Amino acid sequence: MSIAIIYGGTRKEGNTEILTKHAIQGIEVEEFYLRDYRILPIEDMRHDEDGFQDRGDDYASTIKRVLQHDTLIFVTPIYWYSMTGTMKNFVDRWSHSMRDAAFPDFKAQMGTKEAYVIAVGGDAPAIKGLPMVEQFKYIFEFMGVEFKGYIIGKGNKPGDILEDKVALFQAEQLRKKL
Amino acid sequence: MSIAIIYGGTRKEGNTEILTKHAIQGIEVEEFYLRDYRILPIEDMRHDEDGFQDRGDDYASTIKRVLQHDTLIFVTPIYWYSMTGTMKNFVDRWSHSMRDAAFPDFKAQMGTKEAYVIAVGGDAPAIKGLPMVEQFKYIFEFMGVEFKGYIIGKGNKPGDILEDKVALFQAEQLRKKL
Amino acid sequence: MSIAIIYGGTRKEGNTEILTKHAIQGIEVEEFYLRDYRILPIEDMRHDEDGFQDRGDDYASTIKRVLQHDTLIFVTPIYWYSMTGTMKNFVDRWSHSMRDAAFPDFKAQMGTKEAYVIAVGGDAPAIKGLPMVEQFKYIFEFMGVEFKGYIIGKGNKPGDILEDKVALFQAEQLRKKL
Amino acid sequence: MSIAIIYGGTRKEGNTEILTKHAIQGIEVEEFYLRDYRILPIEDMRHDEDGFQDRGDDYASTIKRVLQHDTLIFVTPIYWYSMTGTMKNFVDRWSHSMRDAAFPDFKAQMGTKEAYVIAVGGDAPAIKGLPMVEQFKYIFEFMGVEFKGYIIGKGNKPGDILEDKVALFQAEQLRKKL
């Protein structure tokens, strides 16, 4: 099993990253820090005569590498009760890949994968993070990805997550499965 | 009452825009097409010694104008079961404005406003759009914005929304309130 | 198409009933006022040696008649952010029917049906009624019932619903489909 | 701190009860097994001239004892993606207590309490149990009860819950707080 970690955070070594590192300790993974790539918002050209146009950024090369893995772990701090805009832009672009001759089997390929979500939020995330979990559920459902589980931790200031014993324990349980 | 329409769509004259134009027919509003501005993802520098840095894009001038209105209408096609990345980036940046000396009363000012959401989706939006509505609810709640209502229409191909009689009726009812 | 209306309300001629009558005007339906039947809470005996026992109430005869219809309309005032306990007891009992020799094809039969939900609430139902809609979605999904749509109206005092123009319009649109 | 455990399950020693016993090991609590009381569905008489009528069952004496505690733990197996009908009937009756001269300060008294929810479900409860969590959130919010946390375990057959290590760990963490 080959694992891709897709980081949507915009702060280095934020709580969500710390929690994820705890989960993948000693496990071989490929890590994608989306903030280090140039990934533009989608421009919806589904209904244009010529269809979607290449946006000349890092999206295509990134998704190509992500596709080589079996397990995708989406890691995002909770910004405004959902994934970061940085991660959302990445997901939005899938609408292009689904119609891109360069990715002839995009949806079918994604449909063979399984996914986890790891998120940390500061404002009652166990409750107010639930719409985000449901959003991921619908995303995975649409793509045929199996949603294997999620961890929602609590943290605000740097390092807070180390106080969230349940999240750390869940990370350890996840490690055993990976 | 002064009204700002904040468009998150990336396609000109998409279904969500058609539905919104139906709602604001004959009403004076200021329109913000986010796709026409350069609004970068936030970089979370809350915990940096020097705090957030200016990103040199169109965000500050845009939010400044938005703030001058009493009623905010957030208009977004449903991309992957939530607002577009384009709109999410705009909202994410509020985290900076709340800590920006250039906007000393950002949260207090936002807290005087009322908001509506207009969205159109193609995949069972009356059900699968609900997590997005809840996200907006939490966003508004956090900012003290009064969430006055929402319209979720159904549409996929250009013009589909004109078949959604309930959404059109809701748009007309909204028009009477504006 | 044969239609069953399943009323969960405990007040005669409440707002939800008024809204539903508006939707079914001039249409032949069979109406089930659950409050008029004796339907006890389920006793979970799945794991007992002898399985579920007959509870000697009106459930079996009621569900038998409901099963004869193709379209089920679940009508409930929103009590504490979900269906009434009266209606919940009725649904809970399905767990027995699925294991009851008297209903050998219960799930398969349910799986041929389509359903609507009509609900009225007093406390911001367009938002706070959403978890109930999701519960119904999962219930129908589990049973293989097609969830064709829902109407959530707003009302508290008797007759309030007549002021909810959108709900009334939705009821009229539903009428055309039935 | 005085603790009431309110059990909504209808099977003795079900998974939810096992999980709860694990959480309250060695702690003094008062336990209410709702299945052992006769608690009828509410009859909504808010708008009747004479208001609600006493239903002559065990509700009043039960809620009176519950009110004497500071912390309420609601324990329910997930039936059809929400609390059991047995527990729902109990909660529905609060609408009467709020208008009952015998409970002059019902809402104010409830508003001093804090609450937890412990639930176990068999069908992807970490996802499909979320609407139930949101429903409890709104219930507590309405009453002014502080929602301190919840545990959702996974289990179907008797004893399954002992395999859910995360739920057991959460129960142990909860124990430390009680």
TrEMBL record, chains A, B, C, D:
Reported EC number(s) for this entry are: 1.-.-.-
Q: Which GO terms describe its molecular function?
A: oxidoreductase activity
* Superkingdom per UniProt: Bacteria
Start and end of every NADPH-dependent FMN reductase-like domain?
A: 1-124
Q: Which UniProt keywords apply?
A: Flavoprotein, FMN, Oxidoreductase
**Pfam families (alphabetical):** FMN_red (PF03358)
Matching entries from PANTHER family are given as: NAD(P)H-DEPENDENT FMN-CONTAINING OXIDOREDUCTASE YWQN-RELATED (PTHR43278)
Q: What is this protein called?
A: NAD(P)H-dependent FMN-containing oxidoreductase YwqN
Give the classification, highest ranks: Bacteria, Bacillati, Bacillota, Bacilli, Bacillales
Gene field? ywqN
